[in-house]
Amino acid sequence: MLQIENLSKSFGGLKAVQDVSFAVKQGSIHSVIGPNGAGKTTLFNLITGVYVPTSGKILFEGVDVSGMPPDELARRGMSRTFQNLQVCMNMSAIDNVMVGAHLRLSQNLLGALLRIPSLRHSEKACRDEAAELMHFVGVGKYVDAAASQMSYGALKRLEIARALAARPKILLLDEPAAGLNHTETAEIEALIRKVADSGVTVVLVEHDMKLVMNLSDQLLVLDYGKKLAEGTADQVRANPDVIAAYLGAAA
Amino acid sequence: MKSMLPSTRGLVVLAAVLAALPLVLPNSFYMDVAVRIAINAIVVIALNLLMGYTGQISLGHAGFFGIGAYASAILTARFGLPPVLALLAGAVAAGLLALLLARPVLRLKGHTLAMATLGMGIIISIVITNEVAYTGGPDGTSVPGFTLGAWSIDGESAWYAVVSVLLLATAWGSLNLINSPIGRALQAIHGSEIAARVAGVDVTRYKVKVFVLSAVVASLAGSINAHYVGFVTPGVASFFHSIELVTMVVVGGMASVFGSIVGAALLTLLPQVLSQFEGWETVIYGVILAVTMIFMPRGLVPTLAARWRPARAATPIAALQLKPEGE
Lengths: 251, 327
Known about the structure:
The complex is a heterodimer of chains A (251) and B (327). Chain A contains ten helices and ten strands. Chain A has 251 residues and is an alpha/beta fold. In chain A, helix 7 links the parallel strand 7 and strand 8. The longest helix of chain A has 21 residues. By secondary structure, chain B is an all-alpha fold. Helix content of chain B is 75%, strand content 2%. In chain B, helix 2 packs parallel to helix 7, helix 4 packs antiparallel against helix 10 and helix 8 packs across helix 10. The radius of gyration of chain B is 21 Å and the shape is globular.
């Protein structure tokens, strides 16, 4: 479904991502792990069009999408969340989720100004679906709240609801468990499992090893921008290079 | 449906106030002030769509207002066009200029639009002042009354009725827009541009769209104002007028349609009220603005609305406190 070929990104002299290749299978949960500064988030930003790659290719459903802007990728069925929350605090919680459904709704200016009946109906349907999604991710009690009234953990879930509102084929989650306590992490794990079971392919960047090992079908380990290892959780855990990167070379 | 109620209620209140005002206002001087307030409010609502909702600043909106005013003045008086056609021509010109300006500028990040509109506004103002043959230069030029076939708008009361309807229509359309997919996209651009892009919003296109819409409405209001006053001077397109419009948005309340009306009303009235403090009015004006911004940084209407509706905010905050945060 998603194929990364020899992807590189340099910022001036710094090679943040170097010659990384991997493939994500449809319906799987694929995790990207690595020490701080390994280039995980940069890789995410490359895949989702926030950065333009220096070289290499990104194929999404067989089409070369490297360098495409995020809104074009959204149109093709890619959605993501952010490590540093990107929730619109000037809006209500449910409006944030409804933004996720943007591409499926009428973008006719005149129709919007006059609030034509067909728009009224699609808005009602969208609002109901957004409320449902908020319940699905576990923030149902905030349906009538402003985004600014929500806790950090709830906002992380709200972002997932917004991403799901786009009905994506592939969902990229950038550190969904960062800053959460053990209970909340367990809940997020269950939620990601639920999302994957609903047929959405999930790509995950995460530091919480327990979460990653529990969830992932495939893992990609990055270190200093390069691919260090890949495979199933057990394969990666047994890989001496990975152990060296995490525990130090002497180990 | 539930979320539509406050804005519908607001429109009903606005309609009631607009209907009741002529019964309360003692004479035509006050009616004149009311008409000016309504025309300003229309521009301020349009500017608020751009500034308050989308987070893009225009320092040249008086320029678009001026284009409408002078299009109506010149095309009707010198070329004999019917007022409606002149008004539409002005709106098209303002829209095209906005489009030409915004397309390249809004691709860039940061407050480029503020700088570009600042320059554009000043250029429009200079052109109006210098093209004496058409515009009458600094002395201004007179504008014929507004007629549509056999119908004409005569007298304060008739003008008041017309601008009231226009104001209501602007408020209604704007509220509709804000509560539409486009409106959410605009607010999302303000809240987090990257989140909007990832959700599929073509950010540049939407910024251009709202800027053009805002410019067209400003031009229409400029045309109406020209016919109402019967005379235009370069002052309508001046930088000072642009700043006045921005101030009305900020004082009334960013991202608030009804705040725009309150801001327009307050800042149109204030100079009238303060004129008795001869020589000191500018100082008092400045102090009032500064104090408002210090104590109500979100603007009058959003601040007061939040204060009067404490019950609504209380529930989720209480829920927050029960939930342990972090580790």
